[in-house]
Design a protein that fits this description.
about 75% helix, about 0% strand, mainly alpha
């Protein structure tokens, strides 16, 4: 249980760090690229496996790690933009409502049972993202306010599904740090390509504070994933684990938003928050 509690706390802090990037005018993409060098270093330093770099592409989980690396840097960037443009609570709700996507994956691919309650939970999750993105209690939600929350919702769901699938089918006990290091390494390489493209197009502006921001982001980023993977190895059922983790992050991040950043939630946002918690409970525990 301690690994799950630590994962919730550190995952919530990630949203806070992204919000601080906006306040201190730190370039999110540059910080994310640096963050992956830090996360990669931690993964290599804590790995107990003797696999050499040359042997990594031969591992059964390498292709999955490469695809996850692409998703990691893409979704991480979207997470940062959502937290900065829409607020911490919206970002956490959109990201953690994605628990419905692994559930849908299980229903479609593994023919898992689906009941009326679970369907209601899935629909409630979509409504929760919509209401959480509202800026007014009287006007409908504008499409521009929904774009990044929806991208975060879908992307995070695909990421969670892929991470769980690869971890359970190809990663042996003790290989988690090397697996994570490979994901972070792939994300870093992909990020470097983007930065080089920006340099060629004359859109790259370097500031030392972006490196500091990447360091601050990299440490919790690595440990949030390691603690979550270790929690997967415990006796806690995966559906229960996802439920506790996601509900915990949504609630704790909202507390951070209200207390530290003085974010204001309108009535629709509070309803969306309540639906978010209810939908996670419905789809994962029923």
């Amino acid at each position: 249980m301690i690994y799950l509690v630590l994962s919730i706390l550190i995952s919530s802090l990630l949203f806070v760090v992204f919000k601080l990037f906006d306040l201190f005018k730190i370039n999110t993409l540059q910080a994310i690229v640096v963050n992956y060098t830090i996360a990669l270093s931690f993964g290599l330093a804590t790995s107990n496996t003797s696999v050499s770099i040359i042997e990594i592409p031969k591992q059964p989980w390498f292709l999955g790690a490469f695809c996850l690396g692409f998703l990691f840097i893409s979704i991480f960037n979207i997470m940062g933009i959502t937290a900065q443009k829409n607020g911490l609570s919206v970002a956490s709700i959109a990201g953690k409502m994605s628990v419905v996507i692994p559930i849908i994956f299980g229903i479609v691919v593994y023919n898992e049972a689906v009941g009326v309650v679970k369907v209601i939970g899935i629909l409630a999750a979509l409504v929760a993202v919509y209401l959480a993105s509202a800026k007014s209690d009287v006007s409908p939600v504008k499409f521009k306010n929904l774009v990044f929350p929806l991208l975060l919702f879908i992307g995070s769901g695909i990421l969670d599904t892929g991470l769980k699938y690869v971890e359970t089918t190809a990663v042996s006990a003790g290989e988690e740090p090397m697996f994570l290091a490979t994901i972070f390494g792939c994300a870093f390489v992909l990020g470097i390509f983007v930065v080089i493209t920006q340099m060629i197009n004359g859109k790259f502006k370097f500031h030392w504070k972006n490196i500091l921001g990447g360091v601050v982001l990299g440490v919790p980023n690595y440990y949030s994933m390691e603690f979550l993977l270790k929690a997967f190895k415990t006796d806690i059922d995966s559906s229960t684990l996802f439920t506790i983790n996601n509900v915990g992050v949504v609630i704790l991040t909202t507390v951070f938003a209200l207390v530290f950043f003085k974010e204001k939630l309108i009535k629709k946002n509070w309803i969306g928050l309540g639906l978010a918690v209810i939908s996670i409970l419905l789809v994962a525990l029923v």
